[in-house]
């Protein structure tokens, strides 16, 4: 498009040429490597039906090259005509309308979209970068360490770790928190083996590949939480090496919470006392669980090494970010002096978004513990409402006790899945009930799902999928089991 004839504006709206057929984004990939191969992880043990890995069909999303907004060089008279500014304004206006529409149908991913940070717009003109260690001021003066450390203190207090005993930072995303937590574990036990349930977030297995760590996948219960009987068996197969364990405070698909106390007991019973490091991945529920009555505690009074949560999920930050807290005693192995900063650095990325801590600080001050407790209660109440309504409609569904993630049978129509932005795996999908998800929104979703489903299944169309292996026979309503 560069060097096109005329003022160039007509070409700005042109759609790019279609992709070659071999890059068709809707192509179904039906010949994938096994999970062990794709993760670069050698399975320690395979049993029964696990020996024959079934190929799974994955429908890829649309290729953005077909819809992207192209960049075109300005014409010589653009500054005089102002047409380019008008064009860009129209593109942004259309984009904003699309965001409003997509937000109306946002249910499958754990992002709290209920926020208002208008008061912070006065800071958007500044390039705020928190370089290096949050607790040591560097030569770069345009930072937000004052806010960052304030946020870290709040989370350290939440997880019962004294100010003088913790180290942490505001990460760029939840994955970075996992990468850092597991890296600390690897530095504490250089020959340690990483253990994680098979329903752990993919970033945990990414960390294993990046750090060239031996990794053992542990089986899960039907709820999605780690199976400590299988964990014990696999620990005993590697008694000579320390254990680095990822504990899920809410799994990605089912929202299952691993039993931290049972994990610790299993480690000690297997002879791993003082030879283990636990990282708690609390991406979503790590901030919700402290406000759930009778929920087990995630606390540094227990022998855990680190905890991470996402800031753009339950908190509701408009940009991806997270919080990583670890014990100060562990961090010296990672930290190094950086002369040109006049600081130290033990983070993964070095440069960090300096705006994110301000957004987190603003929300924590506005809501506080009581505000979060109210929002958690609302989410759990609405999640139970959705689960009950699904079952009333004859749709199999499951909701873990400590979760706001409602799992149900995967809708047959991929366009419906995309419209409501559902997260799917195999025969199941889920809705994550967040503070911005109202009863009205859930009713609209249910109404549309029930109406569409009546056309998907029937005498000639076939039966809904059986999801008993994913949610248990008590929660599956496919009609093939005796209740």
Structural summary, described in words:
By secondary structure, this protein is an alpha/beta fold. It folds into three domains: 9-104, no CATH class; 122-366, Type I PLP-dependent aspartate aminotransferase-like (Major domain) (Aspartate Aminotransferase, domain 2); 369-471, Aspartate Aminotransferase, domain 1 (Alpha-Beta Complex), CATH 3.90.1150.10. The chain has helices at residues 9-12, 35-39, 78-81, 83-104, 145-158, 174-188, 202-210, 228-236, 260-269, 328-331, 355-392, 414-419, 439-456, 468-471; strands at 28-29, 58-59, 166-171, 193-197, 215-218, 243-248, 276-281, 306-310, 322-327, 336-338, 343-345, 397-399, 405-409, 423-425, 428-432. The strands form four sheets. It has a seven-stranded mixed β-sheet, sandwiched between helices. The chain has a four-stranded antiparallel β-sheet with strand order 12-13-15-14, with helices on one face. Helix 5 (145-158) packs across helix 11, helix 8 packs parallel to helix 9 (260-269) and helix 11 (355-392) crosses helix 13 (439-456). It catalyses: L-serine + H(+) = ethanolamine + CO2. This is Serine decarboxylase. One of its GO terms (biological process) is carboxylic acid metabolic process. One of its GO terms (molecular function) is carboxy-lyase activity.
